[in-house]
Amino acid sequence: MAFVHAIRADRGARSYQEDAAAVRAHAGGLAAVLADGMGGHAGGAVASEVASAGFLDAFLAAPGDERTRLAEALDLANAAIAERAAGQPELRGMGCTLVGASFGPASLDWISVGDSPLYLVRGGDIHRLNEDHSLAPEIDRLAALGRMSWETAKVHPRRHVLRAALMGSEIELIDASQTALALQPGDVVVLASDGIHTVPEAEIARLVAAAETPDAAAEALIAAVAVVGDPHQDNTTVVVVRLLHDPS
Predict the structure, then answer these.
(1) Range from 1-5, 64-68, 209-213, 236-240 carrying the lowest mean pLDDT
(2) Confidence at residue 248, expressed as pLDDT on a 0 to 100 scale
(3) Rounded to whole angstroms, how far apart are CA atoms 220 and 208?
(4) Most confident of 40-44, 155-159, 198-202
(5) The domain that contains 224 carries what CATH number?
(6) Is 71 among the domain residues?
(7) Which phi and psi (to 5°) does residue 2 adopt?
(8) What total number of domains does the chain contain?
(9) In the structure, what pLDDT confidence band is assigned to residue 39 with cuts at 50, 70 and 90?
(10) Which of 131, 200, 211, 219 is the most exposed place for a label (fewest CB within 10 A)?
(11) What range defines the domain where residue 13 resides?
(12) What are the DSSP calls for the chain, one per residue?
């Protein structure tokens, strides 16, 4: 099976870009990473670039099975942030979320920290594969229990507060695939920064399913965020990977 991919990014209402994303080929498939920086204009951008580059370099060099390599790459990306910030007060407190994925030859493994989503779009259905390490799930749980209204929950000022991130210290929460997820021809996997949350998941699924190519899907997703016109829109970056249909 073969994979095709596309990356698109937009600064939204920000004057700077703190997201970083990259894809590299490896034996049998692809490795993809997306990091969403935190720590201001300088720190956030540095953290995401250092972490994403370090993650891919480490993953491609590491021995072992996919999940072992992903875990080692995450550790080394986190260590790279600490090393980069050492002795530089202007970078103190910088960090990032990170979602990394290994594709191939017809399966998916992942590891993630933070709130950057990893979606599988199969046909017209969408499934979030990784955990959300922000306070949003806990706030939604309180709403489900009737302790606050859904209206309040959806606009709660602490929804986007992170419970875990890569900051060069011990990582509080890590989500990782326990077994490889079998992929089917036509499946589309989307790695995204949390700016994509402006667009409902059902609309993400519709746009991706309707797109003929990963480039078209990525452009449609970025355009959909812009159409919402949120005056506080965060950076949005998407990596779209499609498993091609078997030509036979």
Answers:
(1) 1-5
(2) 46
(3) 8
(4) 198-202
(5) 3.60.40.10
(6) yes
(7) -120, 155
(8) 1
(9) confident
(10) 200
(11) 3-243
(12) --EEEEEEEE-TT-SS--EEEEEEEETTEEEEEEEEEESHHHHHHHHHHHHHHHHHHHHHH--S-HHHHHHHHHHHHHHHHHHHHTT-GGGTT-EEEEEEEEE-SSEEEEEEESS--EEEEETTEEEE-S---BSHHHHHHHHHTTSS-HHHHHT-TTTT-BS--BSSS--S--EE-SSPEEP-TT-EEEEE-GGGGGS-HHHHHHHHHH-SSHHHHHHHHHHHHHHH--TTPPPEEEEEEEEPPP--
pLDDT at position 92: 87
Mean pLDDT of the chain: 94
Contact 117, 192 (CB under 8 A): yes
Q: Report if residue 103 sits inside a domain.
A: yes
The amino acid occupying position 72 is E
Q: Is the pTM of this model over 0.90?
A: yes
Domain assignment present for 191:
yes
Q: What average pLDDT does this structure show over 77-83?
A: 96
Let me know if residue 248 belongs to a domain. Answer: no
Burial of 151 (0-12, 13-18, 19+ CB in 10 A): exposed
| Ramachandran class of 146: left when φ > 0, alpha when ψ lies in -120 to 50, beta otherwise | left
